[in-house]
Amino acid sequence: MKVRVALNVNGEFREALVPVHKTLLEVLREDLELTGTKHGCELGECGTCTVLVDGEPVLSCLALPIETAGRRITTVEGMAEGGQLHPLQQAFAELGAAQCGYCTPGILLTATALLARRPSPTRKDVKEALAGNLCRCTGYTKILDAVELAALRMGRQEART
Amino acid sequence: MTKNEFAVIGRPLPKVDAWAKVVGETKYADDLFLPRMAYAKLLRSAHAHARIRSIDTSRARALPGVVAVVTADDLPRVKFGILPVSQDEEALCADKVRMVGDPVAAVAAVDEETAEQACRLIEVDYEPLPALMSIFDSLAHPEVMIHEYGDGPNVHKNVALQFGDVEAALEGADLVREDVFFFEGNNHLPMEQHAAVAHWARDGKLTLWSSTQTPHYVHRVLAKVLDTPAAHIRVIATPVGGGFGGKTDPFAHEIVACQLSKLTGRPVKIALTREEVFYTHRGRHPVLMWIRTGFTREGDITGCHLRTWLDGGAYGSYGVASTFYTGVINPVTYKIPVYKFEGARIFTNKPPCGPKRGHGTVQPRFALECQLDKAAEQLGLDPADMRRRIVAEPFTKTANHLTVTTIGLGECIDKVVEASGWRDKRARFGVSARQAPRRSPKKRGLGIACSAYLTGAGTAIYWNDMPHSGVIVRADRSGGVAVLCGATDIGQGSDSILAYLTAEVLGIEPKDVHVHPADTSLTPVDLGSYSSRVTLMCGMAAIQAAERLRDAIFKAVARKLEVSPAALVARERKVGVPDDWDKAVPFARAVELGEALHGVLAFPGSYAPPKRAGKYKGGGVGPSPCYSYSACVVELTVDEDTGTVELENVWIGHDIGRALNPLLVEGQVEGSVYMGIGEALMEEQVFRKNLHKHPSMLDYKSPTTLETPDIHTILVETDDPEGPFGAKEAGQGPLLPVIPAIANAIHHALGIRIDEVPITPDKILKALDLKRAGKPARVGPERLPLFTFKEPLVVESAFGQPAEAVVSRPFASDDKR
């Protein structure tokens, strides 16, 4: 059975006609062509498919689009505003926090939620927030560094405005 | 040349593909969607070993939405495999399955769900055969033959090499140690599951996009198994979402997608599930090891004899190379005057093992470094000092005829010893230090280990005299430069390295360089992203091509400025005479002058390693242009009550030759350390009732941010004459010492020896129980297989001979030949 789902993705109103059991991950990738969201296990174990729903990290491989109707969904494609990269994206690129880059979208979004909740996180805070996102390339070191750098820059930005 | 003379080299620049990756624009194989694309699924065997009596696909064919169903009957009956000597795989099994997960049929349908459903409708009639699930099983049942080829029943490969009189050397030793170790197998666990899209177009030409580390080898295999001219096949490696060796073989799913596309006239995508990735495997071999080494009172090694038994799984894969690698790299690290190695790879009914980061050398490194630690303890020597004393000599040959160039290991040891506070902490921590508070179950320990690894295999997988890596550099009138190279970026940054080196030579910015990688119809061959070969081999080819372009441009600019070409330099996007820089010509203008003089500016660069293979059978595995070195100190806490290990700090010194980009090198080192930690403490690919015990990311434990300690990377530069601007590898070597350093630190903390990885809490508790009972506090393998190695090939030891002064390198530019 197919259902019509209406989603607010990255500030855009999008509709799709999909089988009722199709996951948010699949709808984003296959129906809305937002392939920036990746899959690593499709069982909710690796964090690779993380998106934000109303600002909170959600594993899109375990979420159904119907559950997210009317709520704000943010994918990696929606992180940059206008021509400006999100400070996390900038820091990840500068510090080499993305190697193969496959886990990067999920980690960026998880970190976005962390920084919204806790603008000046300690290293331990960052580690705990990202403990559900596996990365096999980096040893996490550069990822932790990049989140801290972004937090610092966002704090400075805040102070200026 | 000092660092300051470089404009690009040595700078911590972002990777050229970083921007696409952080905004989600990078297109991995599964991100490709083509019009009319069908989706394929493989039906895989649920039997570990069985004859196929018949396959009935009629119900699957009748399912609405199914566009094609294929079995072995729909493919040419041609076996394949990565190594010419092990052509033992079938895209779809015809008569027999040899493991759970072997593909037997495939479906293409309008969507993945329909394809899956159709697979369940295929009926396969199997005649089960006994399943051999361990080295011991396979050797005990020669009557059950997994394959019809090899060096004996269920023996894929049996090798024995001897360099000098090892028995005599051991006889003269003050201490001879004989130890047995086991290293459990584990998976690469790349975050991206393998995926491929095939499009067999109506002009009869096939394009395959695949998440592969070796597009050139996939190209060759497709031509062979699809019985189609290679000239009509194009393989494009999409950016790889993590490889670590797991995407280095040609795979059944790639071949099947191509055939389904041919039959349906539609593009076909196939994407493996995580479970399928575990069964596709090609990961770390489980290896049982026996090692006997002689030492003098001062800690020098008098000789070493190593035996390895590899559990190969159901197919050959890289296994012959893996077998050699368990033996041949060991003598590169320390002075080992005489050496004997015997190794055997045994077939079992499990997913095939293959190359994982550190290919074949990780397991014996664990054995050797743990044994050194035991010997140091027995001899009353500091394990760091002992290693420092026996570091191999630069620019010499090893017992097994490998030529070693620069060695920065001594400096690596010194630096990790100093940075970690080794001397102080070794005295303060540890079981003998009676650390306070005594009531706490948490004991601290510090351990050290070292290693070496090749910077690119010295020989190709198939015998040939052609370049191992090729690059074409093309300048256009805009001042942009295109670099075409078959190399595959698997996250290690090969695209970036190509851009940096080209920019350095031409005096432009990396942003001005457009890298076009890994497309067999456009790019010169690069053999693939394996054996830590890419930076060195592509790098050397890129430098040669860029220098040829620069020479052409210089010739034209020299005419214009009426100076000698030798007076010109290229820097800051200009070409000119340093003392008369005002007249320097912008790079784009210089390209125009060059094109006016020469025509199109496109130049090739080629690289093949120096021909230095030892002149004995088997001498082709092990040679490398140069070797990287690493030293590692691990600081940890072990809980005596629970057996849990908490890592606190890892210091790692790595001889990188030269860091072309220190940020990328650090990233490789940190990733290697992390992966070593996973292998040491938790990761294992094990089986129960013929099935993978935990083929999911939840059950297969790997380290998260919380298990990964602070990693302190120290880079040592030795400016190797073989590498591009002196660079060596970084992607694999630093994994090696981490695992034994952890084992040695656990011994330091508790006085127990766990001679088997992964070192899980149950093994630690068992060893503590033994210790309390007054028994030897060791947990590890208790028995060895009954097995006869073949008569060794006896060759004189080349230990200590000087490296050839002049190296002949094929394709080198005239002045550097």
Share of helical residues of chain B: 25-40%
How large a portion of the residues of chain A is in β-strands, by DSSP E?
Answer: 15-25%
Give the amount of beta strand of chain B, in percent: 15-25%
Largest sheet of chain B: 7 strands, mixed
Question: pLDDT average of chain A, as an integer?
Answer: 96
* Oligomer kind: heterodimer
Brief characterization of the structure:
Chain A is of the alpha+beta class and 161 residues long. Chain A is built from 5 helices and 5 strands, in the order ββαβββαααα. In chain A, strands 2-1-5-3-4 form a 5-stranded mixed β-sheet, sandwiched between helices.
Features:
heterodimer; A: 161 residues; alpha+beta; Ubiquitin-like (UB roll); DNA polymerase, domain 1; 2 domains; five-stranded mixed β-sheet; 5 strands; 36% helix; B: 817 residues; Aldehyde Oxidoreductase, domain 3; Aldehyde Oxidoreductase, domain 4; 3 domains; seven-stranded mixed β-sheet; 34 strands; 24% strand; globular
Question: What would your notes on this structure say?
Answer:
- The complex is a heterodimer of chains A (161) and B (817).
- Chain A contains 5 helices and 5 strands, in the order E-E-H-E-E-E-H-H-H-H.
- Chain A is an alpha+beta fold and 161 residues long.
- Chain A has a 5-stranded mixed beta sheet with strand order 2-1-5-3-4, sandwiched between helices.
- In chain A, helix 2 (87-95) crosses helix 5 (141-160).
- In chain B, a hairpin with a 5-residue loop joins strand 26 (627-639) and strand 27.
- Chain B starts with 17 loop residues before the first helix and ends in a 22-residue tail after the last strand.
- Chain B is built from 19 helices and 34 strands.
- Chain B folds into 3 domains: 36-129 and 194-271, Alpha-Beta Complex (Aldehyde Oxidoreductase, domain 3); 287-458 and 616-795, Aldehyde oxidase/xanthine dehydrogenase, molybdopterin binding domain (Aldehyde Oxidoreductase, domain 4, 2-Layer Sandwich); 466-607, Aldehyde oxidase/xanthine dehydrogenase, molybdopterin binding domain (Aldehyde Oxidoreductase, domain 4, 2-Layer Sandwich), CATH 3.30.365.10.
- Chain B is globular and about 85 Å long.
- With 817 residues, chain B is an alpha+beta fold.
